[in-house]
UniProtKB/TrEMBL annotation:
Record domain Fumarylacetoacetase-like C-terminal: where: 2-158
This protein's UniProt keywords: Hydrolase, Metal-binding
GO MF term list: acetylpyruvate hydrolase activity; metal ion binding
Organism of derivation: Bacteroides graminisolvens DSM 19988 = JCM 15093
Pfam families to which the protein is assigned, alphabetical: FAA_hydrolase
Name by which UniProt lists this protein: Fumarylacetoacetate hydrolase family protein
Family annotation (SUPFAM superfamilies): FAH (SSF56529)
Length: 159
């Protein structure tokens, strides 16, 4: 499985992270197969970072190949959704950004992409209006909605 991830896609999170630049295109990065953590396996904090952050994400399963896809046809290219957690070695990310280097080492380390069970897209009334959240020990620590994405699912697929 190839993971194509979109960074900096929520204005509120960008503000929280003090990103002031407005992106006119999605910020795309990759995660390798070895980043996938599934089947309820535990996540272990890696010893190479002192600051691991987590972000709950909507995960879209692409089910066919395509290029130069028009937004109005984008929904034909994915068939299921789930939630996931994107783990980031934030201390390394700051260092890499300051040096103008890629993010892969801080975003693509082993088990840095926890994913849930995929649900057919037909089970959702509108994928552009999905509410999602993350709870830890019964406390909601993050919540979001796909409507708040700077670049929506179909727009990203068409990119």
């Amino acid at each position: 499985m190839k993971i194509i991830a979109i960074g900096m896609n929520y204005a509120a999170h960008n503000e929280e992270m003090r990103h002031t630049r407005v992106n006119t295109d999605p910020v795309i990065f990759m995660k390798p197969d070895s980043a996938i953590l599934k089947d309820g396996k535990p996540f272990f904090i890696p010893d190479f970072s002192e600051e691991i952050h987590y972000e709950t994400e909507v995960v879209v399963r692409i089910n066919r190949l395509g290029k130069n896809i028009a937004s109005r046809f984008a929904h034909r290219y994915y068939d299921a959704l789930t939630v996931g957690i994107d783990f980031t070695a934030r201390d390394l990310q700051r260092k890499f950004r300051e040096a103008g280097n890629p993010w892969e080492l801080c975003k693509g380390f082993d088990n840095s992409a926890a994913i849930g069970t995929f649900v057919p897209v037909t089970q959702f009334a509108d994928v552009q209006q999905l509410q999602f959240s993350l709870q830890i020990d019964g406390q909601t620590v993050q919540q979001g909605c796909t409507a708040n994405m700077l670049f929506g699912i179909d727009e990203i697929i068409a990119t």
